[in-house]
Amino acid sequence: MLKGIPAILSPELLKRLCEMGHSDRVLIADGNFPSHSVGANAHVIRMDGHGVCEILDGILQLFPLDTYTESPVKIMEKVPGDQVATPIWDEFKTIVTKYDSREKAIGSIERFAFYEEAKTCYLIIATSEKALYGNIMLQKGVV
């Protein structure tokens, strides 16, 4: 056991987060995201039974966001015409704002472009999150 480390962060996850360098990205994916096929070249860690928000909050307690880019946090845009509610985005904003005060810290990417960006992530965390469009990508900054 270590002091000051959020309990939700497993030793494997801590190892992978520590391996990441400046500008590397981690995707915390909802339960519908094709984590293993999109993440064929990434490290994929399964965190079944957990939601994206609790993992996001745990990671941001230790993980510096990139200050060299305007929006180091990205979410997937809704498909045009999709009327599904996305209350999880408000939760994302609340959590990110605790750790980064920039107004534009969170940006968005068109769905298929998001999948392409996800293919270049160093790490993908597969969760059991049920919220639709509940995917969030973080770009690591400098400690």
Automatic annotation (TrEMBL):
Organism: Oribacterium sinus F0268
InterPro entries: RbsD-like_sf, RbsD/FucU_mutarotase, RbsD_FucU
UniProt protein name: RbsD/FucU transport family protein
Source superkingdom: Bacteria
Short name of one Pfam family: RbsD_FucU
Gene3D superfamilies: RbsD-like domain
GO molecular function terms listed in the Swiss-Prot or TrEMBL record: D-ribose pyranase activity; fucose binding; L-fucose mutarotase activity
Keyword Transcription regulation: no
Key words of the record: Isomerase
Catalytic activity: beta-D-ribopyranose = beta-D-ribofuranose; alpha-L-fucose = beta-L-fucose
UniProt xrefs under SUPFAM superfamilies: RbsD-like
